[in-house]
Amino acid sequence: MRTNFLKLSLLALVIFTTSCSNDDKKEELVPAVITQKFTNLPAPATGGQGQPEGGAFTKFSFSENKIVTSDNWDVAFRGTVIIVNGGAKIGIVDEPNRTGNAAVSIVSGAFSTIKSIPLASTFKQDAATIYAFPKSGDNAWYDYNSNTHIISSKAGKIFVIKTHDGKYAKFEILSYYKDAPAAPDLTSTGRYYTFNFAYQPNSTTTF
């Protein structure tokens, strides 16, 4: 009886150790969420100054960390306009089709402190009459100085993106000018975005 008891105890220990080992392996398989910086994303536009803007949008994929030309994009840029790959067309010139389910929730705070995905009800998609990224007001991504004509990204304005395929990313825009000068002036070249982002590939609710 004592021998059988020892055998059962050893078997239970092996099963427990194997289970713990498998759990550790599962934890090791979860990729770390890394903050990355993308510099000088071009966002050219034609028109402006009272004329309708045109030109192709520059489409960006957070999962691929690059500009893409396929339908697998999350956000797209042209001039100061940012759109998401979800919702309906707004009706502007040269606008790409929405083929995904992307949306944006706008939160305030330091980039590093935004750890949780906001409530689903706070996420917005583009619609026929309104952008998910506001063009003006407190939640617009930039301020415009009518005296200096400089566009400045708003500090502490963080955009949490539900990507076109249901994952999540957060990003903050650092600059609208090429090479992200600390103090842009009228000699600075505009329509080049620099931003930080973190991509969560596992559809979890934290970064």
Structure characteristics:
207 residues; mainly beta; five-stranded antiparallel β-sheet; four-stranded antiparallel β-sheet; 1 helix; globular
Give the low-pLDDT segments. 2-27
* Ends apart, CA distance between termini: 53 Å
Number of domains: 1
Q: Which structural class do you get from the secondary structure elements?
A: mainly beta
Percent of residues in helices comes to: 10-25%
For the sheet with most strands, the description reads: 5 strands, antiparallel
* Fraction in beta strands: 25-35%
Describe the structure.
The structure is a single chain. The protein has one helix at 2-29, and strands at 35-42, 46-48, 51-54, 58-61, 66-68, 75-78, 81-84, 103-108, 142-145, 150-153, 157-162, 168-177, 190-200. It has one domain (37-200). It is mainly beta and 207 residues long. The model is unreliable at 2-27 (pLDDT under 50). Strands 1-13-12-11-8 form a 5-stranded antiparallel β-sheet, with no helix packed on it. The protein has a 4-stranded antiparallel β-sheet with strand order 5-4-6-7, with no helix packed on it. Strands 2-3 form a two-stranded antiparallel ribbon. The longest helix has 28 residues, at 2-29. Pfam families: HmuY. This is HmuY family protein. It comes from Flavobacterium pygoscelis.
